Amino acid sequence: MSEELTHYRKLVRDEWTNGDTVAAWAHWHPKITRQQVNMREALIQHARLEPGLRVLELACGTGDPALEIARRVGPEGRVTATDLSAQMLDVCRKNASAAGLANMDFAVADAEELRFPSASFDRVTSRLGVMYFVDVQRALAEIKRVLVPGGVVALQVWGPPEESPYFANAVGPFMQRLSPPPPPPDAPSPLRFAPPGKLV
Predict the structure, then answer these.
(1) 177 pLDDT band (50/70/90 cuts)?
(2) Terminal-residue alpha carbon distance, the chain
C-alpha cells in the first residue's frame, strides 16, 4: 500500500469516526432526512427497488437513505447497512429501531474489502459515499463481486457546486471563510466526482 493511500485512509477514517462528527450527524439526522428528500428519491429511482430485494447500502451514516430503502423492499426484502464508522452505524441502528424496521442488518465495512460472499445482493447503493473511497477501482471491483449478475448499482455524488444551491448554501460559507487549498484531483473529497463523466 502506498504511503499516499495510507495517509488518505487515515484522514477519511479519522474524519468519520470523530465523536463530534458523529454527534453532529446524529443531531441533524431528522433535518437532513427532510432536506435531502429529492436526492433520496432520485437514488431510489435509479436503484429500481422492488419488494423482496437484498440491498447493500455503503457508507450509510446515520441511516438516510438506508431506512427508506428498507421500507421500499418491504418485510420480504433485506437491507445491509454498512459504514466505516461503528459509531455512525450505532446511530443508524437506533434510528432503524425507532422506525420499527426489522428487515435491516448492520456491519462495519470498508467498501474496498467487503466481507460478504459473491453475488449476495440484488442492489448496491450509496449516497455521497463513493467520493470518500480511497481506492475507487478496488471498491468498484468489490461492489461488482458481491452483486448478482444483472444487479443494479446506484451511486450518488455531488455535481458542480454552482449547480447545487444546497451545497453552496450549506458548505459554501465555510469554504469561503477557511479558504482551504484545493485537494489533489483524485483525493477523497466532497467534489471529487463533480466533473461530469469522472465517475465511470
Answers:
(1) low
(2) 23
